Amino acid sequence: MVLAVAVSKKDAEKARKFLISRGIINFSYNPASSRDKIFFPLAESEIAEEALKDLKVKHAVVRKRLKKKESKKVELPPFDMIGEIAIFELPKEFRDKPETEREKAAKKIARDIMANQKNIKTVAVKTGGIKGPFRIRSFKVVAGNRSTITIHKEHGCRFKLDVSKAYYSPRLSFERKRISSLIKEKETVFVPFAGVGPFAIIIAKNHPSASVYANELNPDAYRYLVENIKLNKVSNVIPIPGDARDLKTKEYWRIADRVVMPLPMSADQFLDVAFHLAKKGGTVHFYYFTDSIESAERVVMEAAEREGRKIKIIESRVVRDYSPDIIEVVVDFQIL
């Protein structure tokens, strides 16, 4: 039995496009039909269940016996789907091969991705990690259009960006929804490292009475942040260009009810900024790459001690696996 979403036949095409756009359809199984319904196989994950809340047609999640696809294609590696662009990492077995073999394998995988994901127009392979203070992805386009500009849809918002110039992680979709659900009326929210605006704009769109400050260092990402504020017609986002360290001014002294820190590579170096921005009783959401939840909590506790602030950890959880030895953790803590 496979997890599936059931929709009426008249809504099937709309539902299929939605499931593909969110990357939550399970291509290992074939859809099935009854007299009046279509059953689409789903990826079994927390993200899939959360994404279905945005499906605008009547549907039901069920367990259904579906036929497994017979495929001679290589198994697809995990990939990020940002708008109409897919970015994947070459599997380990190819990494020590000659360049011609690596290129051939990358193009084969790219073709398979495009065959499975009909809305994908560009496929790129990673050529390195995320680099520099602007968080730029290293990749090479291997199939489809050469353009790296796209519009990504998430939780009722649209985000335009150039993935070669600004970072975006679709894997934080659940976290953006979760944080948005915690916002109270008329909160002041500060998002350093705002990128092209996903956390800030989703919060602002869902909470018109909130004031959301969005700070970004990367000039290209900041340009898209400003454009996306207009694109989503939100008037309660205040964009701030420049280094997050420059936020330690009188103007922003303890004005925030909530601070969101989506910079897991180096957010620990900016905890003093978070303590500067947050009110007494305010909440901080600290994202961090580490080897354990305990390590992330220790970083937060030590920073609080240095700043002379007392805190209470509300919740700590694993957001995702980043590598075999590294996880991304979020620590939600309150400043007492």
Write a structural description.
By secondary structure, the protein is an alpha/beta fold. It folds into 3 domains: 2-64, Alpha-Beta Plaits (2-Layer Sandwich); 79-147, 2-Layer Sandwich (GMP Synthetase, Chain A, domain 3), CATH 3.30.300; 171-335, Vaccinia Virus protein VP39 (Rossmann fold), CATH 3.40.50. It is 28% helix and 31% strand. The chain is built from 9 helices and 17 strands. It has helices spanning 12-22, 46-51, 92-95, 99-116, 173-182, 198-206, 219-231, 271-277, 293-307, and strands spanning 2-8, 32-33, 37-41, 59-64, 79-82, 85-88, 122-126, 139-144, 149-154, 157-162, 188-191, 211-216, 237-241, 256-261, 278-290, 311-321, 327-335. A hairpin with a 3-residue loop joins strand 2 (32-33) and strand 3.
Notable traits:
alpha/beta, GMP Synthetase, Chain A, domain 3, 4-stranded antiparallel β-sheet, Alpha-Beta Plaits, 7-stranded mixed β-sheet, 28% helix
Q: Which structural class best describes the helix and strand composition?
A: alpha/beta
What name does the CATH topology of the largest domain carry?
Rossmann fold
Mean pLDDT: 93
Number of helices: 9
Please count the beta strands (DSSP E, at least 2 residues each).
Answer: 17
Concise overview:
The chain has helices spanning 12-22, 46-51, 92-95, 99-116, 173-182, 198-206, 219-231, 271-277, 293-307, and strands spanning 2-8, 32-33, 37-41, 59-64, 79-82, 85-88, 122-126, 139-144, 149-154, 157-162, 188-191, 211-216, 237-241, 256-261, 278-290, 311-321, 327-335. By secondary structure, the protein is α/β, with parallel strands linked by helices.
